[in-house]
Design brief:
Layout: H1 3-29, H2 32-60, H3 68-90, H4 96-113, H5 127-162, H6 175-208, H7 216-236, H8 243-261
Helix pairs in contact: 1-2, 1-4, 2-3, 3-4, 3-5, 5-6, 5-8, 6-7, 7-8
């Protein structure tokens, strides 16, 4: 990794760190000015993050999704882009308390792993393989956004039932907004993620005459798919308010991370 590429990564990390701290501090200070400061810092980090990703694409000639640092970085980039779009549309401040730390965590993983970025092996240059990587990555980003709003919906529902005002009360939108955004993000993310898994199965069948190798990455990916399917069903049956939803969400989050950590370039 050359110096200029590292500079944009570390600048993004610095801005994300400061933006996350500013946002989290509003849990205690409850000042809109701190929220705006945090947002400006996160956008600055996003710009640097975008430059970093663009440099990788220009150097390797392929989307930034072929190894662990590229994949988690791209997921972080998409998650923040979606969060920013939702903030512009709905002014959902509370989501930042989950999304900002998640973006920071993902980019930190990308920086710590430090795998070299290289041109994709000609044998892997296939539309099916590219579709598998791209759909899986985009699907994961959508599902993580859905998890964030699922947690917000549960917190809002609990506050309304107990008639208490928690630290996030002033930042959380109505329960209907939280539930709608959560369901849509999960539904869209799940659909795209499913396409990615199917493309992966097809690619595996073409290259090894088998449907899937049972490695950690594959087991994590399939486990996450099952858990997200159950989570979506809880919305359809209107049982998402139960405590098991929190357990399923945590399990899906862990499974997604296991699948991502199993990625090798």
């Amino acid at each position: 990794m050359n110096l200029s590429l590292a500079d944009t990564l570390y600048l993004a990390l610095l801005c994300y760190t400061l933006g996350t701290l500013a946002a989290l501090f509003t849990l205690f200070a409850r000042e809109n000015r701190l929220q705006r400061t945090g947002l400006i810092l996160m956008i600055a980090g996003f710009v640097s993050h975008t430059v970093w990703i663009g440099t990788i694409c220009a150097a390797t000639g392929h989307p930034p999704i072929t190894n662990l640092p590229e994949a988690v970085s791209f997921v972080a980039w998409v998650v923040f882009a979606v969060q920013l779009a939702l903030w512009i549309r709905y002014r959902v401040y509370a989501a930042v308390f989950f999304v900002y730390p998640l973006v920071l965590l993902l980019l930190t993983v990308s920086a710590v792993v430090g795998e070299k970025f290289k041109v994709l092996d000609p044998e892997l240059r296939s539309n099916v393989f590219t579709a598998h990587l791209l759909f899986s990555t985009l699907g994961v980003a959508g599902l993580l956004i859905g998890l964030a709003f699922t947690l917000l919906a549960m917190l809002q529902d609990r506050s309304l039932k107990n008639k208490t005002r928690g630290r996030l009360w002033e930042w959380i939108p109505s329960l209907d907004v939280c539930k709608t955004l959560s369901y849509r993000a999960l539904a869209i993310g799940f659909s795209i993620y499913t396409l990615g898994l199917l493309a992966g199965v097809l690619w595996s069948y073409r290259t090894s005459a088998g449907f899937m190798d049972l490695r950690v990455k594959q087991i994590g990916a399939v486990t996450a798919w099952v858990l997200f399917a159950v989570l979506l069903q809880s919305y359809v049956s209107n049982t998402y308010r139960r405590k098991r939803t929190l357990i399923i969400s945590a399990g899906a989050f862990v499974a997604i991370f296991v699948a991502m950590l199993g990625i090798r370039g």
